[in-house]
Amino acid sequence: MMADIYQATDSRNIQRVAERLKQGDIGALPTETVYGLAGNALDPAVVGKIFKAKGRPSYDPLIVHISGLDRVEEYAEINPLAQALAEQLWPGALTLILPKRPNIPGLVTSGLPTVALRCPNHPITLAVLNACGLPLAAPSANPFSRISPTTAQHVEDHLGSQIDFILDGGQTREGLESTVLDVSAPPGIQVLRPGSVSQEQIERTLRKLAIPFAWITTRGDSDQETPKRAPGLLDSHYSPTTPLFLFDGSQPDWRRHFDSAKKRIALLLWGDSPLADEADSFPGNVLVFNLNPTGSATEAAHNLYALMHELDGGQFDEIWAMNPQGSGLAQTVADRLQRASREWKVD
User: Fold this and answer.
1) For 209-265, how does the pLDDT look when each residue is reduced to its tens digit (9 = 90+)?
2) Strand 36-40 to strand 27-29: parallel, antiparallel, or no bridges (unpaired)?
3) Which residues pair with 345 in a beta bridge?
4) Helices (DSSP H) in 152-228: which residue ranges?
């Protein structure tokens, strides 16, 4: 059985999806970041179905989506620092780690005493949240560790037989997952996963409000099978099935590899790279693609997963991506490419 497909352009489908969620079904919803695989976060059996559908290990916790700041106290203990950030940056692509209430099942949080909460900035998701009245656990709607989906078709292609429904709201606007910020023990705060909301934006917000804070930089998470404080912390994640390698232009061997390899290679460039002007000089086995022709990091974030899905369709043996340089969203794109890449050894 394949998932039922609902078009978000039909307003009646919002209520249909909400009723299915209340009945214990799981399905994909569009958000401003990526499509999420949603289910009732308060029901351990439903949460278990999410983990099973994704093939996700129990040590990797889920983000719980809520309809607004007024719902936080039902599921977590909020502090003034977290409240200030939520007032300024919600709805939005910012997930806050807070001490959890007992009604949040331990499976959601990998047994940890904290829960990840977010209010998404997408009218369709908010309409579903309000219609069903539930907090929704909603990791990205893709098989575990693979490329996140930014269209309903991506979800259907990879999880269509594992879930109950897909609400098609078109391509997602931002294209990268939310920023995850640990605010469970202020004034210390820590970005656990970079995302659409930059560390600079968080810092500006708190300084404007004259709220004391201190950045914590130690990571404290590894690839070992121990509970993670947030999703997206594994060193290998967001990966295509096609081997992806990063290069920065200073490594002398990558060009020689292109010239000698009897492989079909997709070369993924960043912005106005000089390599774009050399496209005609590459051998016929190398096809050149540009992540953001205008040089905009916002454009790159929007295009990243869609292009990775396209290049992972089986027509290439390897994907080579230029390592982005810069801060903010460029740094976030670099983080996703780093986690998606493999170590390259010279032939």
Assistant:
1) 999 999 998 765 555 567 888 887 877 889 999 999 998 866 667 778 877 778 999
2) antiparallel
3) none
4) 152-159, 199-208
Which residues contact residue 10 at a Cβ distance below 8 angstroms, ignoring those fewer than 6 apart? none
Q: Which of 136, 146, 131 is nearest to 63 (CA)?
A: 136
DSSP for 76-128, please give it: B---HHHHHHHHHH-SSSEEEEEEBPTTS-TTTTTT-SEEEEE----HHHHHH
* Cβ contact 88:213 at 8 Å: no
pLDDT of the residue at 252: 60
With the C-alpha atoms ordered 83, 89, 90, 95, is the resulting torsion angle positive or negative?
A: negative
Q: In which residue are the tokens 């996140």 written? A: 148
DSSP string, 125-143: HHHHHHHH-S-EE--BSSS
Using an 8 Å Cβ cutoff, are 164 and 23 in contact? no
**Cα separation, 27 vs 50, whole angstroms:** 9
What would you report as the CA-atom Rg of the chain, rounded to the nearest whole angstrom?
20
Query: Amino acid letter at 2?
Result: M
Q: Which domains does the chain have, with CATH numbers?
A: 4-215 (3.90.870.10), 244-340 (3.40.50.11030)
